[in-house]
Amino acid sequence: MRHGDKINNLGRTAAHRKSMLANMACSLIQHKRINTTLAKAKALKVFVEPLITKSKEDTTHNRRIVFSRLHNKYAVTELFKNISVKVANRPGGYTRIIKLGNRLGDNAEMALIELVDYNEAGYSPKGTAKKKSTRRSRGGKKAAAEQAAPEAKEGNSSEA
């Protein structure tokens, strides 16, 4: 029975799972967004959000705690120098998971997990409407071609 067993084991041993989540967290910290399966994205969210919370207070103790989970000093430096500054006044919810559909090979549910404060390109929530583009008639190309043709003729006559 699974009473009280809330961790998703992802079909891996404990050592493999910890290593995989540490690598994925380092990639997320360095690249600000990664594509993965939905189950891994949900597990990664639980893994990385407490680390981001720790990074808000830059102490040696917090750096050592985060390093013991990530095992990558470059990711720890990026987390404490850049990311912690952006999330300083956010009370949680540092990551966003966006479902992408199913993978072609094995039909696994795919997702994009990204840091919320680094969403310059792409994400627009369902509530906001995009600006409509205006359709132009095809006559515009024809008129432009007619204007260009007389200018070309005038240019030839001035050279002679």
TrEMBL record:
<feature type="compositionally biased region" description="Basic and acidic residues">
    <location>
        <begin position="151"/>
        <end position="160"/>
    </location>
</feature>
<protein>
    <recommendedName>
        <fullName>Large ribosomal subunit protein bL17</fullName>
    </recommendedName>
</protein>
<keyword id="KW-0689">Ribosomal protein</keyword>
<dbReference type="Pfam" id="PF01196">
    <property type="entry name" value="Ribosomal_L17"/>
</dbReference>
<keyword id="KW-0687">Ribonucleoprotein</keyword>
<dbReference type="GO" id="GO:0003735">
    <property type="term" value="F:structural constituent of ribosome"/>
</dbReference>
<dbReference type="InterPro" id="IPR000456">
    <property type="entry name" value="Ribosomal_bL17"/>
</dbReference>
<feature type="compositionally biased region" description="Basic residues">
    <location>
        <begin position="128"/>
        <end position="141"/>
    </location>
</feature>
<dbReference type="InterPro" id="IPR047859">
    <property type="entry name" value="Ribosomal_bL17_CS"/>
</dbReference>
<comment type="similarity">
    <text>Belongs to the bacterial ribosomal protein bL17 family.</text>
</comment>
<comment type="subunit">
    <text>Part of the 50S ribosomal subunit. Contacts protein L32.</text>
</comment>
<dbReference type="GO" id="GO:0006412">
    <property type="term" value="P:translation"/>
</dbReference>
<dbReference type="GO" id="GO:0022625">
    <property type="term" value="C:cytosolic large ribosomal subunit"/>
</dbReference>
<dbReference type="InterPro" id="IPR036373">
    <property type="entry name" value="Ribosomal_bL17_sf"/>
</dbReference>
<feature type="region of interest" description="Disordered">
    <location>
        <begin position="122"/>
        <end position="160"/>
    </location>
</feature>
